[in-house]
C-alpha cells in the first residue's frame, strides 16, 4: 500500500471526513522520483467542530504519527468544519519549493 493510501485510510477511520483530499506533492520538491515524502491534506470533518486550528492539526498529526516518523517529511494540513468548508471554493495552493529541483 502506498504512503498516500495509508494516510487516506487513517484519516477516514479516525475522522470520518465528509471530504478528504490527499495530494502527494513530493514531485514539487528536491527528492528522488516517485518519492512519498511531501503531502497536502484537505480534510473536512465534524470532528473539528469547536476546535482551534492548532487542535485540528494535532488530531491529524496524532493519526499520522507513524508516517511522520518514518519518511513523511512535510504535511500541509488544511482542516475545516463542514460549515467553514462551505464558505470556501478550494484549499490554498501550495507554494513553490524554494530548495530547488
In short:
With 101 residues, the chain is α+β, with helices and mostly antiparallel strands. Helix content is 34%, strand content 20%.
General shape: globular
What is the share of helical residues?
Answer: 25-40%
The number of distinct structural domains comes to 1
* The CATH homology group name: BolA-like
Low-confidence segments, ≥5 residues, pLDDT <50?
Answer: none
Rg over CA atoms: 14 Å
The main β sheet shows up as: 3 strands, mixed
**Mean pLDDT, as a whole number?**
88
Question: Order of strands across the biggest sheet?
Answer: 1-2-3
- What is the chain-wise order of helices and strands? HEEHHEH
Number of helical regions: 4
CATH class: Alpha Beta
In CATH, the architecture is: 2-Layer Sandwich
Strand tally: 3
Portion of residues in beta strands equals 15-25%
Structural class: alpha+beta
CATH topology: GMP Synthetase, Chain A, domain 3
- How widely separated are the two ends? 27 Å
Fold and architecture overview:
The protein is α+β, with helices and mostly antiparallel strands and 101 residues long. It has a single domain, classed as GMP Synthetase, Chain A, domain 3. The chain is 34% helix and 20% strand. The protein contains four helices and three strands. A three-stranded mixed beta sheet has the order 1-2-3. The protein is globular, with a radius of gyration of 14 Å. The model has no long low-confidence stretch (mean pLDDT 88).
Amino acid at each position: 500500500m502506498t504512503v498516500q493510501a495509508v494516510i487516506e485510510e487513517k484519516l477516514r477511520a479516525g475522522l470520518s471526513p465528509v471530504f478528504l483530499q490527499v495530494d502527494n506533492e513530493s514531485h514539487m520538491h528536491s527528492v528522488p522520483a516517485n518519492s512519498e515524502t511531501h503531502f497536502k491534506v484537505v480534510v473536512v470533518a465534524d470532528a473539528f467542530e469547536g476546535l482551534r486550528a492548532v487542535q485540528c492539526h494535532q488530531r491529524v498529526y496524532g493519526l499520522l504519527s507513524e508516517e511522520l516518523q518514518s519518511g513523511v517529511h512535510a504535511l500541509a494540513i488544511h482542516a475545516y468544519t463542514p460549515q467553514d468548508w462551505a464558505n470556501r471554493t478550494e484549499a490554498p495552493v501550495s507554494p513553490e519549493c524554494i530548495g530547488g529541483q
